[in-house]
UniProtKB/TrEMBL annotation:
Protein name: Elongation of very long chain fatty acids protein
UniProt key word Lipid metabolism: yes
Chief localisation class: membrane
UniProt key word Lipid metabolism: yes
Catalytic activity from the UniProt record: a very-long-chain acyl-CoA + malonyl-CoA + H(+) = a very-long-chain 3-oxoacyl-CoA + CO2 + CoA
Source organism superkingdom: Eukaryota
Record-level GO cellular component terms: endoplasmic reticulum membrane
Pfam families: ELO
Membrane-traversing stretches: 134-153, 174-196, 216-237, 244-263, 269-290, 311-331, 337-357
GO terms for biological process, alphabetical: fatty acid elongation, monounsaturated fatty acid; fatty acid elongation, polyunsaturated fatty acid; fatty acid elongation, saturated fatty acid; sphingolipid biosynthetic process; very long-chain fatty acid biosynthetic process
Keyword vocabulary terms for this entry: Fatty acid biosynthesis, Fatty acid metabolism, Lipid biosynthesis, Lipid metabolism, Membrane, Transferase, Transmembrane, Transmembrane helix
Native source organism of the sequence: Oedothorax gibbosus
Length: 364
């Protein structure tokens, strides 16, 4: 199958005012000169024939291409066209230039962007990623988050009307629900896969296998924790300051910092799988609730289970604490600086949630 059809013949004058058709001439014609443009081996040969008063551009069919499709550069012919664009009749020049520009953007640039995004999300070499290697970025984002949500944001919105962010909130919450479901499935698989190596997991051969095969999921979870900061930005832009509690801000900030520490130190204990599998499943339900509530007051009659959602959040922290405590006391889990910080963070969040539950539901 030819990539391009031959261009139509070009008319020239025969000297008596009568036009005559000039067809592509043979290469052995004394009055013609043929320039051959190299092409892929054993593929169609592209040639250009220049006559006395006109220039005709055409293809000479050769043997069919014997290369595999995967070896053929899709831009080969476009590059050949670009070299001798001045030999192409004018009506075709504009179209070919436009096609080349669109083609190169669509295939080359988009392929490069896709490759960069894939490497960013799915590469196992997360230690070299700037969001991990440079701690100033992580803690800079956390500080900016706290300053914006507690001070700068409310000041900016002071004399402005609240934004109507119904559809961005619906998209954001449903997307986070889906992503947490995906990460929850992965963590459940790890709980089963590495159960036999759960004690002192970092000293086992399975830990090396985990870092090579499944380490990227910890990186993805780290990114999700930063994406969850957008919740609070929505509260600020909608002037829902009553929802920006100390519990909310501390919870989001502390989790981002702890996950950065885990990635930076590559200190993954088996307890992390237990934490993630429980937390991701709770977040699937929680962001589903937020997404539904964003539709408006007409959905409130279907969201009677809000109280049970808070109870589930409290229960998850109790289970996480219990598992970590048993692991520390039996010597099955390391009890180092990272584990101490994580255990203290979970304890603080649990106390704050219990206080929130008491004020919101018990007093009412």
């Amino acid at each position: 199958m030819h990539v391009y059809e031959s261009f139509p013949s070009v008319e020239k004058s025969d000297g008596q005012g009568k036009p005559e058709n000039v067809m592509p001439t043979e290469t052995n014609d004394k009055q013609s000169m043929t320039k051959s443009i190299p092409s892929s081996p054993k593929c169609h040969q592209q040639s250009m024939t220049e006559t006395e008063n006109s220039k005709v551009f055409h293809f000479n069919p050769g043997k069919s291409c014997e290369r595999e499709k995967s070896d053929i550069n899709p831009n080969t012919y476009l590059e050949l066209f670009a070299q001798d664009m001045h030999f192409i009749p004018h009506p075709y020049k504009t179209a070919l230039k436009h096609f080349k520009r669109v083609h190169l953007f669509s295939f080359k640039n988009m392929a490069s962007i896709s490759s960069l995004v894939h490497h960013f999300l799915f590469s196992h070499d997360f230690n070299n990623k700037v969001l991990v290697s440079n701690g100033y970025i992580c803690f800079g984002v956390i500080i900016a988050y706290v300053v914006f949500t507690k001070f700068l944001g409310p000041k900016i919105m002071e004399n402005r009307k609240p934004f109507q962010l119904k559809w961005p909130m619906i998209f954001h919450n449903f997307l986070l629900s889906a992503v947490n479901f995906y990460l929850g499935l992965w963590s459940a698989k790890c709980v089963v896969k590495y159960w036999q190596s759960r004690c002192l997991f970092r000293d086992t051969e399975d830990f090396k296998n985990f870092m090579e095969e499944d380490g990227m999921y910890i990186w993805q979870l780290y990114l999700v924790k930063f994406a969850e900061l957008i919740d609070t930005v929505f509260f600020v832009l909608r002037k829902k300051y009553n929802q920006i509690s100390f519990l909310h801000v501390f919870h989001h900030s502390a989790v981002c910092a702890v996950f950065w520490w885990i990635l930076k130190s590559r200190s993954v204990g088996y307890y992390l799988f237990i934490i993630v599998v429980i937390n991701c499943n709770i977040h699937v339900i929680m962001y589903l609730y937020y997404g539904l509530s964003a539709f408006g007051p007409q959905m409130q009659k279907y969201l009677w289970w809000k109280k049970h959602l808070t109870s589930m959040q409290i229960t998850q922290f109790c289970i996480i604490q219990l598992y970590m405590m048993v692991g520390f006391l039996t010597g099955c889990e390391y009890f180092e600086a990272l584990e101490l910080s994580l255990f203290s963070t979970v304890t603080a969040i649990l106390v704050l949630f219990l206080n929130f539950y008491r004020k919101t539901f018990k007093e009412k």
